[in-house]
Design brief:
Blueprint (H helix, E strand, L loop, with lengths): L26 E2 L11 H13 L9 H15 L8 E4 L2 H11 L6 E6 L3 H9 L4 E5 L1 E3 L2 E3 L2 H6 L5 E7 L11 H13 L3 E5 L21 H5 L1 E5 L13 E5 L2 H7 L12 H13 L1 H23 L5 E2 L7 E5 L8 H7 L2 E2 L1 E2 L8 E5 L4 H15 L6
Parallel strand pairs: 1-13, 3-4, 3-7, 7-8, 8-9
Antiparallel strand pairs: 2-10, 5-6, 9-10, 11-12, 12-15, 14-15
Helix pairs in contact: 1-9, 2-9, 3-4, 10-12
């Protein structure tokens, strides 16, 4: 079955966070959802549920727990139990729960940066002390500076945050890299909170995703794994995510706000996930091929623009672009004035970079890249 990812659907006026923020002739390539319709099987499952007509309170479906367990075993050889799954409305609430309930006041966390800004916000709002540990470029990939990580540990350090695949850098951490991080956490008695929401968005075939908790039973017992198909199948508005937490004590701490300040996913979130996991594989494969083509286009174009550079994006639909060579005080504003809205690097702790979401139709992406090229050209001297 063919899927049309080139259809230029109009999202303006649909309460889209991406499209309704910037009026006028602006191509919004910032917040991380895509411009693709959700898989037909997901939309059909939602229609059927809507036609039932009763949208009452919903229990957490046992069949969905079983589907998640089956998927983890099939894809990663990771055997989890249904009782380990804690349903959430999204991954972001999971980050905030981890900061507030896996750390006591005064206890300290390690935060590898650059990183999706809600990691930092979760710690700031808890509030809990933390140290940012810069990732380093090695072989064209953003990876851990393991010596600096070790030097950042304090007597009060209790939690390590991980984002795998990495947002915004696009790295798929290898098994060997994760084994070293896991050994580091075990050596220092740290819990791990691992955001793995982009685990299905692997653009480099042959580079597998490895859940860090799957490495060993000992690492599983100290890890909270956050996951959701919201990104990969593009239904974040329906809202369904979960944490996998093996250790009962860690799970009880993580669930302290269950049904207090954190609510369950929506009925349509449950329906969407089950349909995607049961019947969405062909759509996902086709989308990955399309996104890889978009990634290749972005990498070629950025490489040809003086003043701009980026490393290879192994996973996600996010390009992390270094603009230092432009000498612009605010690259995000420079491109916005040219009609392209990108995520500012300052949001991730790197003000001379921008993040570009290439999860859009290729014609639209090509237009945006031409605008970026025009904005990047040196101004003629009078």
């Amino acid at each position: 079955m063919g899927f049309d990812f080139d259809d230029l659907n109009d999202r303006r006026g649909t309460w889209s966070a991406r499209w309704d923020k910037y009026p006028g002739d602006v191509i919004p390539l910032w917040v991380a959802d895509t411009d693709f319709r959700a898989p037909p099987v997901v939309l059909q499952a939602m229609r059927e549920r809507l036609e039932h007509g009763v949208l009452g309170y919903t229990v957490q479906p046992a069949v969905l727990r079983e589907a998640i367990c089956e998927r983890m075993l099939r894809l990663y050889g990771w055997r989890i139990e249904p009782a380990w799954i804690v349903f959430l409305p999204g991954v972001v609430p999971g980050l905030h729960l981890a900061a507030r309930h896996l750390l006591r006041p005064g206890e300290h966390a390690l935060l590898p940066v650059p990183l999706y800004h809600h990691f930092r916000l979760a710690l700031e709002r808890a509030p809990r002390p933390f140290t940012e540990v810069p990732l380093v470029l090695q072989g064209g990939r953003w990876v851990f500076d393991e010596e600096r990580l070790a030097a950042s540990v304090r007597p009060q350090t209790r939690l390590l945050f991980l984002c795998n695949p990495q947002n915004p850098g696009g790295t798929i951490f290898t098994r060997a890299e994760l084994e070293r991080i896991a050994a580091f956490a075990a050596r220092h008695g740290l819990a791990i909170c691992s955001d793995e929401i982009h685990c299905d968005l692997l653009l480099d075939r042959g580079k597998p995703h490895v859940p860090i908790a799957s490495l060993s039973p000992e690492i599983s017992r100290r890890t909270v794994t956050l996951a959701s198909p919201n990104k990969a199948f593009n239904f974040p508005g329906a809202g369904c995510a979960w944490a996998v937490v093996e250790d009962p004590q860690l799970r009880r701490a993580f669930m302290a706000d269950d049904h207090a300040t954190i609510h369950d996913p929506s009925l349509f979130g449950y329906v969407a996930v089950l349909a995607a996991y049961r019947s969405g594989a062909d759509w996902l494969e086709a989308q990955l091929d399309y996104l890889a083509g978009n990634r290749d286009l972005v990498e070629r174009e950025i490489a040809s623009m003086p003043g701009l550079s980026m490393v290879h994006t192994e996973a996600t639909y996010l390009a992390w672009i270094d603009c230092a060579g432009l000498g612009a005080k605010d690259p995000q504003q420079l491109f916005l004035q040219a009609g392209v809205a990108l995520s500012p690097g300052s949001q991730f702790g790197a003000p001379q970079l921008v993040r570009l979401n290439f999860g859009t139709q290729r014609a639209r992406l090509a237009d945006a890249l031409q605008r970026i090229r025009t904005a990047s050209r040196p101004s003629p001297r009078g």
